[in-house]
Amino acid sequence: MATSINPGLRQRTVLFGILCWLCVQALPVAAAPPDQRPPLRVHQGQYFSYSMPRGWSANETTNGVDMLAPDQVTGAAFALLLGGFGQTSPEQFLQLVLNATPDLQNARILATKPLPPFPGVMGLHWQVIEAELDYAYRGKPARAHATVGILQGWGQYSAFIRSYQAPTATWESSRYWLPAVAETVVISNPRQVAGVDQVVLPGPIPHDYIYGDYNRAWEARSQSSERLSRDRHEATLGYERTLDTATGQYYDMPYEAYDPARGGYRNPLRPEEILERAPLGE
Known about the structure:
The chain is α+β, with helices and mostly antiparallel strands. The chain folds into two domains: 2-198, Mog1/PsbP, alpha/beta/alpha sandwich (Protein Transport Mog1p, Chain A), CATH 3.40.1000; 207-277, no CATH class. Helix content is 25%, strand content 38%. It has helices spanning 7-24, 90-100, 171-174, 178-183, 207-237; strands spanning 40-44, 48-52, 57-61, 64-68, 75-85, 104-119, 125-137, 140-153, 156-167, 186-187, 239-244, 249-254, 258-259, 264-265, 276-277. The strands form three sheets. The protein has a seven-stranded antiparallel sheet with strand order 3-4-5-9-8-7-6, sandwiched between helices. Strands 10-2-1-12-11-15 form a six-stranded antiparallel sheet. The protein is globular, with a radius of gyration of 20 Å. It starts with 6 loop residues before the first helix and ends in a 5-residue tail after the last strand.
């Protein structure tokens, strides 16, 4: 029963549910016209990894990442909240975020669409919606798309919002490739993200001592599944993870940038060189 679960285990269970959802859920990405999608340079932050076009800036906190183009309007973002008290819905949480963001004025939710509930753990389910928005961003007309999820249980909730935006004048062309930028944000430091390291949790179990050989065998067997998962994720986004072996820099390259004559993707910085396929897990 829920009343028998201690707060630390509740918090860890909620975080595990978030990680499970974010690992397997992909935003639908429309097919982009040729030559409109830029290469995305991979960045590793303290809490998240993310990819964005060259020249963009990013601001990372323990709760999320904001990425912004040089025009100071086009961008993508991801934010995560753990352990909010009370009851809420995706629509209510989205409105709360819009009201609390000082750069937004005259925000309107144009339309919402519920997505099928996604199972979490302990019988909990994510409630998820997609929303179309318009507002003035720092005084400039903008359009946006947001995916919002709520995991409710035990009198608390956790939430995430993944979004992208562009000036109203360029929205129709930008919306073909911006979802891929927003989707690249991945939690890379689950021990500290969203302040989870500040919650008192039960002591660690010596898993390697008890299950070490079993875990190593399972990891070996799961490599093929990981490869299939990566290929499916890349096919959904239309971007392939590549590596500049000379510098160690990773890039997400759009499929249409593939050079069949050279049998690969040209390095954005040194076009005479071909990038290598990134190893699994990168």
